[in-house]
Amino acid sequence: MKRDSNPCGITNICDLPTGQILVADLCNNKVKLLNQLYPVVSHWDLAAHTQIMCQMTPRELAVTLNDYNNDTHAVQFISNSQLVNGRNLQLQHGCIDIAQQ
Hints:
4-stranded antiparallel beta sheet; globular; 8 strands; mainly beta
């Protein structure tokens, strides 16, 4: 995105049932929503570096966040269709990966 302050650093990609794609951008602390033709149609700014994303339900996504400089560690839940803020699980330790079975 032209408004990004750093080059995009993709740490994870998640395809949605709608055909859209979510991209975790570590270098800009964002999750970006791409449509079927791949331009960014929406983005969501996060409080720390994005790591890994996991689809939890058809409408909810979990993203691991870490910023070791500010001692910020969390799992942020967002609505994957609108990139709306949801639950936030604060952690006392780093969390790099997440999975759902």
